[in-house]
Fold:
Amino acid sequence: VQLQASGGGLVQAGGSLRLSCAASGRTFSSYYIGWFRQAPGKEREFVAAISWSGGNTYYAAFAKGRFTVSRDNAKNTAYLQMNSLKPEDTAVYYCAADQNPRLGVREGYDYWGQGTQVTVSS
Structure:
């Protein structure tokens, strides 16, 4: 499966962005989608994940209450809605896919998109 993340940009603190992850190549609905982020000089970290049908979602502690992961299997697209953004959310955001991932682990996903930059100004 090929993944393309988009929707990043520059936003002021307190603002919102919605990232998209468009997939092609194989049956989208057979893959979990995970979102990760990597800030300069830091390790890539787990943000959120969503199960095949969207019935189960998972979040890192910092994302709970502010971020919402969703998917539309008819459009082969997953989303990450980010609200109340903070300067510390500045990072490159990646989407990843796997049929049976180790959810919060970078190595648990076989397929990765190219990343989209999110910059939150104070």
